[in-house]
Amino acid sequence: MSEQKTLRVLDTGVMEGRLNIAIGQAIVEAHQAGRVADTLRFLRFPPTALVGRHQALGQEINLDYCRENGIGVARRITGGGAIFMEPGLLGWELALHRQTLGVKSLPELTRELCEAAADGISRLGVAARFRPRNDIEVDGRKISGTGGFFDGDTLFFQGTVLVDMNPTVMVSALRVPQAKLEKRQLDSAQQRVVTLRELLGDKTPGLVQIQSALTAAFSDRFGLEIVQGELTGEERSEADQLFHEEIGTEDFVGGIEEPSAARGDLTGRQTCPGGTITSYLRLEGPAQNRVRGALITGDFFVTPPRIIYDLESRLRGVYLDDLAEVVRAFFQEAGVEVLSVSTDDFIASLENALADQ
Predict the structure, then answer these.
(1) CA separation (Å) from 198 to 70, 127, 164, 307, 315?
(2) pTM of the model as a whole
(3) Are 146 and 197 in contact (CB under 8 A)?
(4) Domain membership flag for residue 129
(5) E strands within 45-182?
(6) Which residue of 6, 9, 219, 301 has the fewest C-beta atoms within 10 A of its own C-beta?
(7) Considering 191, 226, 253, which residue would you say is the last residue of a domain?
(8) Does some domain include residue 164?
(9) Please, are residues 277 and 300 in contact by the beta-carbon 8 Å criterion?
(10) Closest CA to 116 of 103, 102, 129
(11) Per the structure, how many domains does the chain have?
């Protein structure tokens, strides 16, 4: 009889935003190296605006408001859209081996993990349901957002539970695109989200009960034995190094920005079920028929996330007539996994930029 697999459960409490992100990356690296078991971490943030891995910072975050109101700004290592976190919102992260999950695609695993999280939230007395691509809702309003990626044999997957929050601060800190609200037929971002406090009032459970419900749901779904744990010294040391050298730096957080229109960059957008892909192209050559540089941003999910930088590099020097063929070959050779976006969506975004000439 095979030995039952374990799920190490951690609660790291409230930590500064960029350090919180660095700890997640350190757990991934420790898990990849086989130094720690499958892990579920609960985490919380001081007031912090978190931009997605591939998003242009100033387009998604109201930096002036955040600066004036002492709100931290950080960049996630996962894709998706910008979110606002504060101590009343509970974050959770999973680092799981492919063998734990079975060999499945990222969209299939997203469904399984979101359904498990919805089960956990429902155990608290609300009817939570998974809504593709990666949301968990109660009566059509978002109570949890999720996202993740594969790095080797490790799946890193994050989510939230909106326990209690100040929606006015959230709306002020984030630049929620009007198109996203219109898509949901909403007047404001506040209508899109709902908290446990709004749903349950004085019966809102405490953090310990919420964490227990989620832990039990993940344990039941994947047949894992729960083991309470804590960060290892090695994980914390690696997190501190990542924080100081990469994730905590201004270069990492502000490294993706919308190019100035005055610089002559061409811009193209493609909106699809998996989000919006925005491409910026600069051309070169006497006939302006080669790519000098490319920047691809958006709230999409690809795995591994760093593959977008490889694609941008691959496009340099490519003749425009070969652009679609090069992108197709790149995605095929790289073994990229995507969530509700396709190779054709990336090509369409680039071709829409060329139409901007």
Answers:
(1) 26, 14, 8, 40, 48
(2) 0.89
(3) no
(4) yes
(5) 48-51, 72-75, 83-85, 89-97, 128-131, 135-138, 141-151, 154-162
(6) 6
(7) 253
(8) yes
(9) yes
(10) 129
(11) 2
Geometric angle at alpha carbon 223, from 220 and 229, rounded to 5°:
90
Residue type, 99: Q
Side chain identity at residue 117, one-letter code: A
Provide the domain limits for residue 114.
Answer: 6-253
The answer to the question of residue 1 being in a domain is no
